[in-house]
Amino acid sequence: MKKIGLLPRLVIGIIAGILIGLFFPEWFGRILYTFSHIFGEMLSYIVPLIIIGFIAPGIAELGAKAGRLLAGTAGLAYLSTIAAGIAAFFISLAIIPLIIDHGAAGDPDAVGLTPFLELEVPPIMGVMTALVTAFILGLGINTLRHVNSQNNLFNVMEEFRSIVVMVIKKVIIPFLPIHIAGIFADMAATGEAFKTLSVFGQVFVLILLMHLGYLLIQFSIAGTRTGKNPLKALKNMAPAYTTALGTMSSAATIPITLRSAKSNGVTERIAEFVVPLSATIHLAGSTITLVACSAAVVVLGNGTPEFGNFLPFIILLGVTMIAAPGVPGGAVVAALGLMSSILGFTEAQQGLMLALYMAQDGFGTACNVTGDGALSLIVDSFSGKSTAGEAVAADQVAGD
Hints:
With about 400 residues, this protein is mainly alpha-helical. The chain has one domain: Proton glutamate symport protein, CATH 1.10.3860. Helices cover about 80% and strands about 0% of the residues. The protein is built from 16 helices and no strands. The protein has helices spanning about 5-25, 25-60, 65-100, 125-145, 150-190, 195-225, 230-235, 240-245, 255-265, 270-280, 285-300, 305-320, 330-340, 345-360, 360-385, 390-400. Helix 2 runs parallel beside helix 4, helix 3 runs antiparallel to helix 15 (about 360-385) and helix 8 runs antiparallel to helix 9.
């Protein structure tokens, strides 16, 4: 029997939660909401571990790559991610209030379901502490790897990342639909569910249009640098886009992204360096989605998105999500801490963000990997085809 995908399970969870909140006895809804409460506490606990587990080994791994080419590619990828987030904020600020009424989710003081059991599982450290710790560990391990190639601490961090990934894949993702069902059961009990769902479709359309618009900008810049037809180059990346829709993982799509980038004439050595690296650090599509969904949640809660709050959120997103593309849905899970600490999202709002993001995760990933093709063209144009191979080889020797 074919396994049911995550998106259908999320849809089933939303529908089941609404039906339970509307038609089932209150005690049944409270049982479900008790699970959501405990699950939410676990999410809060694991977020700092996710940040350390993703970022520390991610930074440490970069040290083994080519120096100057690494700096240029990483800088370009991060700049692209931040630019995408800032553009998404201002577009969302202009359009979302027009399609969503402030406070459309309902009365924030309405009494909903209460859990039978309330447990507090405080995280071992705050989000910012986890970020600083991850940077110290990552940079320290990076330095030590130049002195000792058999760095035991690096191996420990890799195993720690494997544990975090396993928790996400084996615990968080499988039980996420039940968590979402509990959130929507509570929303149905307070009359918020249908009002919230009514705006989902409009927000998704806006996000997809922003993805397409940003890809056109990226490939237009690449076309200006290389003299290639941007639309043709974008068309050549279609196999990577469609593959990412299914895998929902930039890392799993790397072989197809590589082939598509090479079909655009990118030097083989450049493509084989830029594409795998960009798969872990270039997250323009995911950032657009997270920023737009966050702005929508703020408006739904009768708030106004403030650039002063969203700018540090966007800047830190580009760092927090390092290596998260290897896990379907990893980007939004890694970003939960920022939503709480910077945007002030409640547990219910974080659950809503999970539902919003996961419902279209494949499209954000597809935008990420397609944009990697544009980055590879731009990096190739700066490297120069005649010397690209020699430059990469020299940098790799220097890096070793």
